[in-house]
Specification:
Elements: E1 8-13, H1 18-29, E2 36-41, H2 47-57, E3 62-66, E4 70-71, H3 76-83, E5 89-93, E6 96-97, H4 107-110, H5 112-122, E7 151-152, E8 160-164, H6 165-170, H7 185-197, E9 200-203, E10 209-211, H8 226-240, H9 245-262
Parallel strand pairs: 1-2, 1-3, 5-9, 6-10
Antiparallel strand pairs: 3-8, 4-10, 5-8, 7-9
Helix pairs in contact: 8-9
């Protein structure tokens, strides 16, 4: 008798981070819902293209995309699939909590004054996850351990997103015009699914995972790829952001931020790290 197809396909791009990937696999082995297949992509390449390769191989009605530096609680997949029980839901995401010991790996959390400036200038709804702001950036509440929001959102968290497989395929998957490590290709895909297919993008705390941002692997090239990341944002903004003074300010912030990443010794210019 043929085995039934899995309920979910889990796509994991990974490159040069064997320890992080091994930790993730152990967390998947411990899932209470075991009807899934994993599609692991071990080559280095542009992330949007790699995710499309994973999408093409997916056999399940739901396809999940997670990063190799995440750790999934035992009920994570059950929470994702539970949200898809509603026929209106076309995409699911949840908290991607960054534990305190890993926050120094992300500059917005590492530098207290930078985070305060960012929230004050650009984030309209600092306690609400998954929303696109008028300035053209995203709220960051999904990274907080206290995040308990459940409801509709504008986009899906990049390291914790799931789609109905046929819906994502119907819009052509991830747009490979977003190069490099794929910044902004994830919200672009979610918005296209929502607008072209219909239905809602849903945020649920039941789909919570932990994000342990790694410094190695593809992330080692974030500074080198800074101009590509800026080009990705400009492509996204042209499609979805209404021009405004605040949006212009955010673009100027990104230009300065990415420029500092390219220039040697830029970290020494930033405010004192959180102890």
């Amino acid at each position: 008798m043929a085995r039934p197809p899995p309920k979910a396909s889990i796509v994991i791009p990974t490159w040069n981070r064997p320890e992080s990937y091994a930790t993730l696999r152990r967390s998947l082995d411990a899932q209470t819902e075991q009807s899934f297949e994993t599609i692991t992509l071990t080559e280095r390449g542009e992330l949007a293209r790699l995710r499309n390769v994973g999408l093409s191989r997916a056999r399940a009605p739901v396809v999940c995309f997670i990063d190799d530096d995440t750790v999934c609680p035992s009920t994570w997949l059950a929470g994702v699939l539970g949200a898809f029980a509603s026929a209106d839901v076309v995409g699911v995401t949840g908290p991607a909590v960054i534990p305190q010991e890993y926050r120094s790996h992300r500059d917005l959390f590492r530098y207290r004054n930078l985070k305060r400036f960012y929230d004050w200038c650009f984030v309209d709804l600092p306690t609400l996850p998954g929303h696109l702001t008028r300035s053209g950036t995203f709220t960051t509440a999904a990274s907080e351990a206290t995040c308990s929001y459940e409801g509709e959102v504008d986009y899906l968290e990049a390291c914790n997103m799931a789609f109905r497989t046929e819906a994502l395929k119907a819009v052509g998957g991830f747009d490979e015009a977003f190069g490099g490590i794929g910044d902004w290709s994830e919200p672009d895909a979610a918005i296209r699914v929502h607008r072209r297919i219909g239905g809602v993008l849903w945020f649920t705390p039941a789909a919570r995972l932990e994000h342990h941002p790694a410094l190695g692997g593809a992330m080692a090239f974030r500074g080198r790829d800074a101009w590509q990341r800026l080009a990705n944002y400009r492509l996204f903004a042209r499609r979805y952001i209404r021009p405004s003074l605040r949006h212009g300010g955010y673009q100027a912030f990104l230009m300065a931020y990415y420029s500092l990443q390219v220039i040697g010794g830029w970290r020494s210019w930033l405010p004192k790290p959180i102890a």
